[in-house]
Amino acid sequence: MSNRVALVTGGAQGIGKGIATTLGAQGFKVAIADLNLEAAAQTAKEISGTGGTALAVEVDVTDTASVEAAVQKVESELGPVEVLVNNAGWDDFMLFVQTDEEFWDKILDINFKGALRVVKAVVPGMLERGFGRVVNIGSDAGRVGSSLEAVYSGSKGGLIAFTKTLAREVATKGVTANVVCPGPTDTPALRKFVDGSGQDAEKVIGGMTRAVPMKRLGTPEDIGPAVAFFASDAAGFVTGQTLSVSGGLTMA
């Protein structure tokens, strides 16, 4: 069990909620930072209801001032952030040739630059204190590519490369940086993206499921334990690593 403070962006729903709930159950004091404050408050209430400690805080990862204000609120109410989980993200399914620069900017601003903003706000304090765990949520799309997700794949590939370099830069200061890459995961966001793509949702979901050796999609609860390992004191000699949680869909 740990009583360290963990900040999870995009922690209100889906994979983020699975991560926040797992960390809360393991004794972390969890700050659930999300654009949807109402949903974040509900998740915090659920964690607190099972004996955990949780705080809901509103954040827009595309806005540096919002990120800095959120971090200040967390640290004033829970204490210094010792574990950072960059989970906030967004995607939509379409062929690359159908995308435009507005779409590129939105994907990169949330999925890549959003993580950079939060790291910049949190990691200097970790370096000063001599301890920190950064866990960035990538995607197997960033490792092997994914049809209809070219820009998203690029943003997650960039996040993986960024994390490896960050890990090298902070390795002597007691701070680690690792990536967890979910495979296809059954979340409300996935269902919404599939529905919005104009394809038969059940066909798409069925195809994803058949491609996974375990013959099911991941769940948010599958992702939390991988994050919790990287966040733990036991993972102090593990840094710059990328771990896929995909039911065997990717194995390299």
Q: What does this entry show, briefly?
A:
Pfam families: adh_short_C2. With 252 residues, this protein is α/β, with parallel strands linked by helices.
Notes on the structure:
GO terms for molecular function: oxidoreductase activity. This is Oxidoreductase. This protein is of the alpha/beta class. The chain has one domain (5-183, 220-245): Rossmann fold. It has helices spanning 14-25, 37-49, 64-77, 101-129, 141-144, 150-170, 188-196, 201-211, 220-231, and strands at residues 5-9, 29-34, 53-58, 83-86, 132-137, 175-182, 242-245. Helix 1 (14-25) packs parallel to helix 2 and helix 3 (64-77) runs parallel beside helix 4 (101-129). The chain is globular, with a radius of gyration of 17 Å.
Outline the secondary-structure elements:
Elements: E1 5-9, H1 14-25, E2 29-34, H2 37-49, E3 53-58, H3 64-77, E4 83-86, H4 101-129, E5 132-137, H5 141-144, H6 150-170, E6 175-182, H7 188-196, H8 201-211, H9 220-231, E7 242-245
Parallel strand pairs: 1-2, 1-4, 2-3, 4-5, 5-6, 6-7
Helix pairs in contact: 1-2, 1-9, 3-4, 4-6
Q: What would you say the CATH architecture is? A: 3-Layer(aba) Sandwich
Number of domains: 1
Name of the CATH homologous superfamily: NAD(P)-binding Rossmann-like Domain
Supply the helix-strand structural class. Answer: alpha/beta
Measured on Cα atoms, how large is the radius of gyration? 17 Å
Q: What helical percentage do the residues reach?
A: 40-55%
Strand order of the largest sheet: 3-2-1-4-5-6-7
